[in-house]
Amino acid sequence: MTAAFVGIDVAFRKKKRLPISVCTWQGGRLVPLMLKRAGPPFPPVGEGNRALLKPGTADAFALAVLGYLRDVESAMGVRIHRVAIDAPSAPRREGIRRRMAELAMDRLRISCIGTPSRSDFEEILHRGREHLRHGGAESRLPHANQLWMLAGFALFSHLGAEFECIEVFPQATAVALGVAAVHKRRSEGYSAQLAAVARETRWPEHPRPSSLDMIGFGSRDDKLDAYLSAWVASLPEEERIACGEPPDDVIWLPKTHRSIQH
């Protein structure tokens, strides 16, 4: 079967389908499967941070993602070789200020959210449950920018039991490509990132935002991040840079003509 490489832009917002790109090398081009055009099955939808306060929610989500990827393998006649996940792979080790991967990002002057430790997460979950118990609004749930990481941990746990999984950070990939000066939220930033990755993957032949419409779900930024992640997944280890301490505390970047020192 044809080897496939997966990029996942982790999200758990209510009713949002998980942005996933599944790609294969075809004649030297990294071509994404048109998952949105293919129709069912579809990737699972998020339930929001409130749901993550309940035990088992993240695991159920990750198992649904695993089931979806197995369905894609069967429907498309591919075999997944490696998965790149845009999320921390595990909580920060106790007793250190930042993960080694995050310290590597700091040295590269790439901003990233700090990952709490396991004991920190226990406190975060307690605070969230107490917030809701006392009538607090879900929209003001504390630590909203870290709760989603629980979904990422579960993905690494369950997908990692079936496939090789690596941690990636699309913003850092954009830095490696030399196109991070303008954020992809702006049209010129988006076009620059798409053109840069297309030079590496030879897909699409004529880069334009509409090229990614059918590769998966989510916003155009989500799809670009998923494709960037799938590209890094497709690279053998000798064509990647380890930022952090392999195997479990590292963000992988692509080696490009730009030399990144960390």
Describe the structure.
With 262 residues, the chain is α/β, with parallel strands linked by helices. It has one domain (2-254). The protein has 10 helices and 7 strands. It has a 5-stranded mixed beta sheet. A two-stranded antiparallel sheet has the order 6-7. It is globular. 44% of the residues are buried. The model has no long low-confidence stretch (mean pLDDT 96).
Short structural summary:
This protein has 262 residues and is of the alpha/beta class. It has one domain (2-254). It has helices spanning 35-38, 49-52, 57-76, 100-107, 118-133, 144-147, 149-160, 170-177, 187-201, 220-234; strands at 2-8, 20-26, 29-32, 78-85, 164-167, 240-245, 249-254.
Q: What descriptive keywords fit this protein?
A:
7 strands, two-stranded antiparallel sheet, alpha/beta, five-stranded mixed beta sheet, 40% helix
Helix content: 40-55%
Which percent range describes the beta-strand content? 15-25%
Q: Estimate nothing, just give the exact number of structural domains.
A: 1
Overall morphology: globular
SSE blueprint and pairings:
Elements: E1 2-8, E2 20-26, E3 29-32, H1 35-38, H2 49-52, H3 57-76, E4 78-85, H4 100-107, H5 118-133, H6 144-147, H7 149-160, E5 164-167, H8 170-177, H9 187-201, H10 220-234, E6 240-245, E7 249-254
Parallel strand pairs: 1-4, 4-5
Antiparallel strand pairs: 1-2, 2-3, 6-7
Helix pairs in contact: 3-7, 9-10
